[in-house]
Design brief:
The protein is α/β, with parallel strands linked by helices. The protein is built from 15 helices and 13 strands.
Length: about 400
């Protein structure tokens, strides 16, 4: 009956050696292997650390040290953990029972005892002890997990604070500059517009990583608005025929400060590039935010078309004036029929819907000639012109 507890350590303490021998025989026949017997309670008490019992069978009335004193010592040894004690006694008085229970006894057997009753009560106490150990182990794992989660949360909080301070320093000290990359009419090679691109004094991150970092700490709109304000200040001298492309995420479009960035007369010269790498959950809200600007002549560009989350939903739901073909589509387009087929389809879509198609990331002559042959009207990329400072752009545009 006790085979599944065969390895349990059982301590038997009784000054009657005949009782000790009988209990050992009963428990061994029931399946227990680790039984430690003591007829002297003083020796039993000093052996607690060595035996480390999981159950104690204890007589109450013994010479030298009675069972009540042994119970007190066992309680101190257990130190709050569950170490069940089964009391074996001929004293069934209420006083003895209450005193033993008060000292931590878990069960009683009255002498002379019944063999089956001993085995059953031992089994019940070992099952309770096993359940206690299981729950204790589970609670310990829970505490360990909680400690781990708390450590991770603390690390995340500290990381968030460091990242936020990094962005706040950039905002407070204006640690970004604006460069401008020309956009060319591919049929005439004339500059039709420029895209404003932020560059940071701390080059440990790419510009897109800076804006992603700002978004992760809830300061994405603030950093984008600062970049837009800087670009507007530097681009005031641009010719009337040249547009200024500014990048903004959906969250920035809904920011209160964004509504006051553009003068009414300058709206017609702005192309707002809405990146496709940010999920738009409600196109109607975005369309409403842009409505008054577009009514004043501001144009909308779907940036990075062909990459990111939304795919062609931007084209259908926001009706942009300009479609910017992502660099991943333009790269090696002269070598890939699939890229050429997609570009041809977008060029046809742009023509049919009265929109303009811009190829981004043109990096060599083969790519330039291919997109031009595929009826892409405008283009930008390192092969045409790299991003440059405002003075350098002014000098370039002044050239005949």
């Amino acid at each position: 009956m006790l085979e599944r507890f065969a390895s349990a350590r059982i301590m038997v303490v009784d000054d009657n050696e005949a009782n000790v021998a009988l209990l050992r025989a009963l428990l061994q026949r029931a399946g227990l292997r680790n039984i430690f017997t003591f007829s002297d309670p003083r020796v039993a008490v000093t052996s607690l650390n060595q035996v480390d019992p999981e159950l104690v069978l204890l007589d109450l009335h013994m010479p030298h040290l009675d069972g009540f004193e042994v119970l007190g010592t066992i309680a101190q040894y257990a130190a709050g953990s569950y170490l069940p004690v089964l009391v074996l006694t001929a004293d069934s008085t209420e006083e003895a029972t209450h005193r033993a229970l008060g000292l931590g006894a878990r069960d009683f057997i009255t002498k002379p005892f019944d063999a089956m009753e001993v085995v059953l009560r031992v089994r019940n106490l070992l099952e309770t002890q096993s359940l206690y150990q299981t729950v204790r182990g589970y609670n310990r794992r829970l505490r360990d997990q909680l400690d781990m989660y708390q450590s991770v949360e603390q690390i995340e909080r500290e990381s968030l604070q460091i990242r936020r301070e990094k962005i706040e320093t950039t905002l407070n000290q204006d640690l970004l500059t604006m460069h401008f990359q020309p956009v060319f009419d591919l049929s005439t090679s004339h500059i039709v517009g420029v895209e404003a691109l932020a560059r940071f004094s701390d080059s440990s991150l790419r510009p897109d990583q800076w804006f992603a970092l700002a978004a992760s700490v809830g300061l994405g709109p603030e950093l984008e608005i600062m970049a837009i304000q800087s670009a507007l200040t530097l681009a005031e001298w641009l010719p009337d025929s040249t547009f200024l492309a500014l990048n903004a995420s959906p969250g920035t479009l809904l920011h209160p400060e964004f509504q006051n960035l553009f003068s009414e007369e300058f709206c017609r010269r702005v192309v707002l590039e809405l990146t496709e790498h940010v999920v738009v959950e409600d196109y109607e809200i975005i369309a409403q935010a842009l409505q008054r600007f577009r009514a004043k002549g501001m144009r909308l560009a779907a940036d990075d078309t062909g990459a990111g989350y939304a795919g062609f939903l931007h084209l259908l739901n926001l009706a942009p004036d300009i479609i910017k073909l992502d660099i991943s589509i333009v790269r090696d387009i002269h070598l890939d029929p699939a890229r050429r087929a997609l570009t041809t389809a977008l060029a046809s879509f742009a023509t049919d819907t009265n929109r303009l198609l811009v190829a981004e990331g043109i990096e060599n002559q083969d790519e330039l000639e291919t997109v031009r042959d595929l009826s892409v009207r405008w283009g930008q990329g390192f092969h045409l012109a790299r991003p440059m400072t405002a003075p350098a752009l002014h000098e370039l545009m002044a050239m005949p």
